Known about the structure:
By secondary structure, this protein is mainly α.
Amino acid sequence: MSRSESLAAYLRAQARRLLDRVESNDGGRNARSALALFDTAAYAAGLPDDDPLILPLDEAGCFGPLGCEEFDPGEAGVRLIRDWQGGEPHELLLALPAAIRASA
């Protein structure tokens, strides 16, 4: 599995987790977040592994020390992804490495 595919699979799983979450007072937040993550997953799946949006994720250690493991954004990245309310797909991919570095 390529880095882009691994990233996309992770984002789709997080989106499904949000859709499965039942919160009576969320005002549609989970659904909006899930749609934004599905959108970002579709965008990421089409990126080559040497794309300028993928390389910083690799440098931040999201694909393991050798760059060939499944995508794992760490605690800071998980928080950012779970709280993502939407925006352009590239915005999330740009924000992830900064959030990960800031938590280190």
